[in-house]
Each structure stands twice: as C-alpha cells, then as structure tokens.
Design a protein that fits this description.
The protein is about 60% helix and about 10% strand. By secondary structure, it is α/β, with parallel strands linked by helices. The chain has 3 domains: about 120 residues, Nucleotidyltransferase, domain 5 (2-Layer Sandwich); about 30 residues; about 100 residues, no CATH class. Strands 3-2-1-4-5 form a 5-stranded mixed β-sheet, covered by helices on one side. Helix 8 runs antiparallel to helix 9. The longest helix has about 35 residues. The N and C termini lie far apart (about 70 Å).
Length: about 260
C-alpha cells in the first residue's frame, strides 16, 4: 500500500507537517517494503492553489491513504473524490505514524464512503491555540490605530471650535475645497485618522467638498514627509508629485461630490 505523509523534511525521521497543502514535502511510502519517495512541494510557500497541487502529486503517485495534521475541506473533498482515504490530527515522526498506521492505530481513516465524518471533526488544541494567537496578533496590530482614533477625536473636539472653522470655511464650494486640500496636505498620520477628522468636520457643518479634498490630499500629499521623500526620490520628483496631487485633488474632490449627489439625488 502506498501512503503519503506531509513532512517537514525529506526523510523518514522528519516530523509530520501540520498542513497537507502547505507541507514542504510529501513522503510517498510503500508500507510493505518501506521504500519511499520524497516529493518536494514547490507550492508550499505560495498559498493560492498550493493544496490543489499537493492533491495532484498524491493522485499521480497512486496514493491510497494520506496522513497529515490538517486538511482543509476543499482539499479533503478532492482527495476523497479520487478514492484516497484521509487521516488527520496526525503528529510525531513519519516513521512513528507509519508504524501506527500499519497496526491500525488510526482506524480506517475517512474514505469516500465515509466522508461525512470530516464535517464533524473536532477542533484540536493546537488548532485552537494557533487561532487564538493569530487573533491576538491582529488585535495588537490594530490597537495603536484604535487608540490614535480615540485621541484624534478628543483633541479635535477640545481644540477646534465651530467658530474657528466658520472663519476658515465660508461655504463656497471652490474655496472650501481648496482649504480642505491645504489642510490635508499638511496634516499627517494614519489614513484612518482622516476619516475621523472628516466626520467631525461634517458634524460641524463643513461641506462635503472640503472633507473630500482633505481625505484625498491626506493620503496623496505629504508635506511633513517631504524632506524624507526628497532624500529618497530626489527634489524634482518629490516636488512634482506633491504639487500635481495637490492641484488634482481639488477637481477630483468636486467631481466626486457632484457624482455622489447625482447618484443619491
């Protein structure tokens, strides 16, 4: 019988790789002779389509059983549809899992006629830990942005009054758009902050033209970072790029608001 085991290295002493489709190697082993072939998975570092290519390797080699730590539902269905049994939650060295399989330690596996069992498989502890770690990492990455948004709202409401805004933004669409573009070019920070400031300006009665121009220039013009851009890309390029973005932001903002009003109204 030929079985395929997802492996970290091209040897029987290797540990079983957790994910079938992204494993560095597939070891195809003849359980009777213990002869094996180590198939490098060239798609292991490229997630899109990696699992499908691993299935092709297994089918081409005439594999009857796959042993792995985890196999996604789509890949599992492809293996089963080709008559290959799938056994998951496998860990240890390749040699160990082969011996365990030979004595029936994994049961009969999940074959095409028993595929319903895959849908009810439990989430093991390692999978849960990985999911929790990934969630914690994503939250840690977004936390500074959330804090910045809260501080931005507080500072804006504390230091910017309606009277001050009224003295700058007169209600003229062209002039307000120009002022919005100027402020957006000077201010710096995460793009999300521009949405927060834009919402606050709208709440204070500032026109959508000005807010749109502010958001556009916030993400395209960076006068604060201009020295660094000059040092990296050259004076001529930096000035030309920022100047064009500032000038074009005004008609783009006006056109955007006009199209939005046409769609809504």
């Amino acid at each position: 019988m030929k079985i395929a085991i997802s492996a970290e290295r091209a040897e029987l002493a290797s540990n079983v790789a957790y994910r079938f489709g992204l494993s560095p190697y597939l070891l195809v082993v003849d359980t009777e002779t213990m002869d094996f072939k180590a198939l490098a998975n060239p798609w292991a570092t490229s997630r899109p389509g990696a699992g499908v290519q691993a299935v092709i390797l297994a089918v081409t080699e005439g594999v009857e059983v796959v042993l792995t730590g985890y196999c996604g539902p789509a890949i599992y269905n492809q293996l089963v549809s080709n008559g290959i049994k799938v056994i998951t939650n496998v860990s240890g060295t390749v040699e160990e899992v082969i011996e365990k399989h030979k004595v029936g330690g994994f049961g009969r596996g999940l074959a095409a006629e028993g595929g319903k069992e895959q849908a009810t498989k439990h989430i093991n502890r390692d999978t849960l830990v990985r999911a929790l770690r990934s969630s914690a990492k994503q939250f840690a990455n977004i936390l500074p942005i959330l804090i910045g948004v809260v501080l931005c709202i507080g500072l804006f409401n504390a230091f910017v009054s309606k009277e001050a805004l009224a003295s700058i933004f007169s209600g003229n669409a062209v002039v307000d758009t120009l002022w919005g573009a100027c402020f957006g070019s000077i201010l710096a920070g995460n793009p999300i902050n521009s949405y927060v400031i834009g919402a606050a300006l709208l709440n204070h009665g500032i026109s959508l033209f000005a807010v749109t121009a502010l958001i556009i220039t916030w993400v395209t013009v960076g006068l604060v970072q201009l020295p660094a851009e000059i040092a990296s890309l050259g004076l001529r390029f930096a000035l030309l790029r920022n100047g064009l973005c500032l000038v074009l932001a005004i008609p783009v903002a006006i056109l955007t608001v006009m199209i939005l009003n046409f769609i809504i109204g």
